[in-house]
């Protein structure tokens, strides 16, 4: 299974920081959190470093991280429900296709790993 991630701290930061405001004064700990989370959601270290060079960039980075987590989670859960419906009907081919479609668009490594593992597991089903 994919490595466990803890997005609680980044979600807490997002709730604390008004995302509509232009100013975002961050502590070193919060900057480290944003940088770590960037790699967890498929952003490069370079993208994170560039964003963290300014308050405006850091705010944009936080918004993008939260967006990727939210959208990836939604995409994963919706596809998972469809996959199980197909499996319940005995349509393993369509169930596999649900995971392939997630893999075609997903950028968050955690969600990609889950989809790939599920797809691999279905390779052994009749």
From TrEMBL:
Residues 6-122 form the DUSAM domain. It comes from the Bacteria. Pfam families: DUF2379. NCBIfam families: DUSAM domain. This is DUSAM domain-containing protein.
